[in-house]
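Repro case for the chain-ordering regression, as requested:
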Amino acid sequence: MYVLSRPALVLLLMMAIGLGFYPLVGDSYYIRLLTKIMVLGLFAMSLDLLIGFTGLISLGHAAFFGVASYAVAWYIVKAGVTSLLLILPTAIGASAACALVIGWLSIRTAGIYFIMITLAFAQMLHAFFKDQKYWGGTDGFNFYDKPQLVFGDTVLLDLSNRLTLYYFTFAILVSAFVFLIVLLRSPFGRAIQGVKVNEGRMRAMGYNIRHLKLISFIIAGSLAGVAGFLEATRTAYVNPELMSWHMSGNVMIMVILGGMGTLYGPLLGALALTLLGDNISSMWDHWLLIMGAFVIAVVMFLPEGIAGLIEKTANRFKRKPPPKEETEP
Amino acid sequence: MTFLTTPVSRRRLLAGTAAGAAAVSTFTPTRFAIGQTAKLKIGLMLPYSGTYASLGNNITDAFKLRLAEVGGKLGGREVEFVQLDDESAPPKGKDNAARLVTKDKVDVLVGTVHSGVAMGMAAVAREENVLLVVPNAGAGDITGKMCAPNIFRTSFSNWQPGYACGPAMMKDGKKNVVTMTWNYPAGHEQIGGFKESYTAAGGKVVKEILLDFPKVEFQTYLTEIAALKPDAVFVFFSGDGAVKFIKDYAGAGLKGKIPLYATGFLTDGVLQAVGNDAEGIRNTLHYADSLDNPVNKKFVAAFKAMTKRDADVFAVQGYDTCSLLATGLEAVKGDIKAGATLYSTMRNTIVDSPRGKFTFSASHNPVQDFYMREVRGGRDVVLGVAVKALADPAKGCTMV
Amino acid sequence: MSGFILETQNLSRHFGALMAVDDVTLSFERGLVHAVLGPNGAGKTTLINLLSGEILPSSGSIRFKDYDITSLPANEVSHLGIGRSFQKTNIFPNFTCFENCRLAAQSRMKGVFHFFKPALSYKRINELAEKGLEMCGLTKRRDTLAQAMSYGEQRQLEIGMMLATEPELLLLDEPLAGMGAEESLKVIELLRKLAKEHTLILIEHDMDAVFAVADRLAVMVNGRLLETGTVAEVRASKAVQEAYLGSDEEGH
Amino acid sequence: MDISYYLIQALNGIQYGFLLFLVASGLTLIFGIMGIINLAHGSFFMIGAYLCWWLTSLTGNLFLGILAGIPLAVALGLLIERFGIVHLYTRDHLYQVLFTYGLILIFGEMRSILWGNEVQSVQIPEILSAAIPLTDVQSYPVYRLFISLVCMALAAMLYLVVQRTRLGMTIRAGASNREMVQALGLDIAKLFAIVFALGAALAAFAGMVAAPVQSVFPGMGDEILIVSLVVVVVGGVGSIKGAFLGAMLIGLADTFGAVFLPHGAGTVIYTVMAIVLLWRPQGLFGRT
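-- result from build under test --
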């Protein structure tokens, strides 16, 4: 049962404060980079809902990320619309609809099948957007306007402003985090966690497992859609690679590296991996060799991820072992 | 975004070419004294790995060759290169270009080969108001919708070489054709330019075949061409895909039966690899290494001496990029921030290139001659000028 | 309405060539305690799995009260009022006892779209869970993680979870399996208590326990029904003595 | 477009199908017997192609190159199984996915260090470089026929091994019931090593024979992996027969997709997969 531990809470507050004030002191390169990290963090968090809480190992999560990005591009490039109020809901809706269809088909299967089928469906979307001239083909689209929130004649929110986008992303990330915490405490949230631990017993107790999994899949897909919206807005560029299986694989690495089933772990995973990529990559041509070895090392020695390490360390420093604190009220 | 699966940026900080390093600048700075005496930072964002690696290297080496020829300095300033491998990966184009500008603080962006990546660079150049010179990528939008005072191209627009081939094919009596290319914007644009002039001249395109970029499994499509039996085939492929295509075309028994036409990228730089299979292919391009002019002869020899490789159209474009920058920066005495003065000088430059003299259009794309070439005895022999001083229509450009 | 709460008609299930349950026609009377006996591999657990909808029969039918439940999946069977416990402890080891029972009780909520109110704020569900805990005697272990408890306690929890779903008919797959004598007595006591308000169908190896609580017996061998009747009738049956009871008692 | 045109296209599809089968059969056996989802399987195809290119340029002969390459591929497979995959048998699929994904990165970079990132081409040997004239303009390259024949022979051999030998019996037993293999007193560790190395060698061999027609390029492993996964899903996990029919189905669907739906060719195979799944979620020959 999900509980946000005290060290995690302290860490999160520190991170939130740091992110909130960084733009006052930081330079433009790192503001960009942090925006990217927050977007990826949100994306990874949405996958954690599936992997860490529902027990669904989806290797096609990038599909929803990409579809939402293309929805943004479609509005701006094809329809000439920049209204945030139109774009954001449609982007989320498009992802949710895809998640409904893909989920409905994949959830009929389990285990290795589920992994392969989610992967294959994401590749199908990838192939579709790559094939269609209308959607920009291999190169995708560049666009030059970004979504805006306009009321009357005043622009309330202009996401082409780097700082506005930064804080908008930050606000969405925080809201998504709170939403997931609330969700996981709700009856639905408890039920999906039950499904992860013991699917058979849940069914015997009267739960409709397929519905639970499908709804979880759709929520996760929609959140990935929010991340996709932000990504398209951030880069003003979409491309089929956004939904390639490398994208899905990378975000899975973020979840595991950070620590699945912790919600904040994936954020740490996104941060660690992106900073690592940003720094090592400029030093050595073959940095992916290190990356590969690193991923394998995480699997072998750190399956609980960074978050697991943090909680273990924090527990060690506690004065006395908690009597029954690990248990649920 | 795929920052994990393929290496991100590979930067190598390289000192400018040694020539002139000891010379002390003597001119009196007019503005931004510090800026001008400091080294000029040029960000070379080009493919140094993957399919286009050899193109990236040729552009880089020819650029440096020209830099050495003008004394190792641009507008009196020493040059420092920041080289970054763009891997021809469009998703990373913007992040990489932004990184060069905001983190490495380069003064000029030069790049790249792949159109998708170049589009990202153009977007960043506009956003950050940095001078960008494109030494290859032919995407129409770079000097079309995306055109800007600070964006120049020294190569071609995809529309140009295709457009040049259409009327010539009609003249050869090829009244219906099948076109074939990769399903990506560069392919669409090259075939589009061809179709425009070819159908205007009365020709008929029987079928347009598109295949996944960068797939090179052509068999299914060659089977289809053989069944359609058109008068000729017009294609756009380049690099390794071109090698494979030429070989498979011959392998499927089509060579000599259905004549093959193409834009010059099909044969440039690949003739050695394909041997006899390329004989008779006719193609249009703005350069041929066999061009008979003194600038070209000197360039071909110097490039060979420097790199031990043969010059090609890409090297020429890299060479001309440096020429253009040299002229522009000379006029403003190295003041890269001079803006309008710098850009209008560059706009009005007549580049004395190995390809022949060329000028720039209002959208900053070369106005240049296109040659009809034919592969004979393993070389592209120039048959004549297909179209003189061809200018890109610059669709969507607000500067025209 | 007949006095039978659950009936099977020519129920069969085969796995490849193996007839796990073969043409079983059985009726279970409302309010009584039924026990299904049989040696290992007799098809008892398969029968329970069929009754609870865990697996689908190859042929035959099952009626529960007025419903034909033959092809209903387990979750729908559960909602009609059939609860089951498992032979192999089948709980949520990293949840507390209370959460195990609460999750069971929560299954009685209508629909799955409860996204925002905290799960712990649903009073009726909490009461059901507490009641389940109380009946299986684990109230004092309420906040202990299930995995931290003894095996016997986990078996009790197994029953508590079943009760939290407020079933009418209980399917118990070897509730005493692997328990010590003292723990067994506790559970037998619990079964007696449950028998007052529920119909019970249990599978059990422990003969003494069976004879102590069961009203009706059914004996299975090799997937087939060998004998049914009251305890006395079955004890007297020659066929049963030969096939099962006799040999079993010799074994002791 | 006459009938002969479609026949030639069918020939193209079947030839692709055979290549897919070599890769997918290993993948499906590794899933079915070892319970391992091996994303790095496509890398063996890529490595095979590079080995072929490298050894062919060293020896000057494609056949010598392939002959020298096969033992290297087997050795690599054994090595990876012994020092890598062996740690995954008891792990969750999630970690298998990540581990083998990490392997892909390592293989990719090793390839980059050893052989570079360039696209390479392999010469078709002189005796196979001819083409058989079919119509007045169309000929069919002999080398493509050669690929189909070799793959067909391999498929037949694989079938015989699986159906007729003791090893095959063990493999079949393992695919249907892992405990049974142990119960029969067979050495499971040895079996796993053999299956993994066999799978790796088949994929690498496919890469070798495909090198002359597909060129040799860095991303070729990813491409074939995804299509092979589709083949396995369609055919049913663990079934060699399923892998074969799935490979043919997908090979033909891909080829005729390109013929009839030139602008949607990439999605055709996935549509086939979706249809099969709606009908039989466990694949054509998968067990429920």
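Ordering looks correct now. Chain A is about 70% helix and 5% strand.
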